[in-house]
Amino acid sequence: MVSVDFLASDYCYEKEMFYALQMHRQGKAVVIPIILKPCGWKDSPLGKLLAIPKDGKPVIKYASLDEAFAEITEEIKRVLQVKFPQQKQPTVHHETFIPNSISQAPRSSNLRITKDFSDHDKDQFLDDAFEYMSKYFENSLQELQQRNQEITYRFKRIDAQTFTASIYVNGNAKCECMVFYGSNSMLSKSINYSNRISSNRNSLNESLHVNNNGYSLFLTLMGMSSWGNSTNKELTFEGAAEYYWELFIKPLQRNNY
Question: What is the pLDDT of residues 51-66, one digit of tens each?
Answer without folding.
Answer: 888 888 888 877 677 7
